[in-house]
Amino acid sequence: MAEQTALADRTSEDGGKPDAAVVRDALGVGVAVGLSGFAFGVTSAGSGLSLLQTCALSLLVFTGASQFALVGALAAGGNPLTAAAGAFFLGVRNAFYGLRLSQLLALPRAVRPFAAQWVIDETTAVALAQPTRRSVRLGFTVTGLSLYLLWNLTTLLGAAGAEAIGDTDKWGLDAAGPAVFLALLAPMLKTTTERAVAGIAVLLGLGLLPVLPAGVPVLVAALAAPAVLYVTGRNRGRPDAGPDTGPDTGPEDGPDAGTPRTPSTTGPEAPADGPDNAPHDASGEDR
Fold first, then answer.
1. Do the beta carbons of residue 168 and residue 45 sit within 8 Å?
2. Are 152 and 38 in contact (CB under 8 A)?
3. Which terminus of the chain has a lower count of CB atoms within 10 Å, N or C?
4. pTM, rounded to two decimals
5. How far, in Å, CA of 82 to CA of 140, rounded?
6. Distance, first Cα to last Cα, the chain
7. In the predicted model, is pLDDT for residue 12 greater than 60?
């Protein structure tokens, strides 16, 4: 019920983003990341894959991280089955993206299998940054279409002209995708919990990169989210974190110090009967 309410709010046109701005941002991501297809084409050709195999990976797989993981493992002399398994597990994250995007896009059933091909990091980041369902669909479509076309085109050019292009590290094209994704992600980290998850994930990913196979550090880094949420939940559930705890006003003098008081029914200034609550004497001195 809460999810439906959130979606209803999101589909409202109030505060909507202009279509031109959505298209501009989506094209910026698609073009910037699509250029890194050059690097993949060259790397794939250098790992021993044919032009047809390289283009088939971009057309059918279309998830850059998994594609780079596969050809990277093959270039290092790894077993093809092991390389394929690493690429597969790295691509599992797209399934989780799909769970969220299916609610935001709300596409007809006949269109969903085709849209699933475009569920990747970049389309998810652009879609989640939109305020309304219309802009979500527009951002997802423009990003997916532009990136898919340009990625496959540059893959073909990179694989066909691998010898002429040379070392892609000199071009820096392999860093375009991560740079754009970080630029989209950074403004979305608004709370302490979100920043903690991102920071721990970066430490896990970079720390495990030298010791684990390609693709596995990213999966391990995903454990940062449940770990931070678990710690946050425990801190919120502590008894001393309740709303009724306030600043200590200091102990009272006398043998009854620290004993909880029972509120008086006659008002805050009404003295109680008894020898321990005698009024001041005639000299005005305290008891």
1. no
2. no
3. N
4. 0.60
5. 32
6. 63
7. no
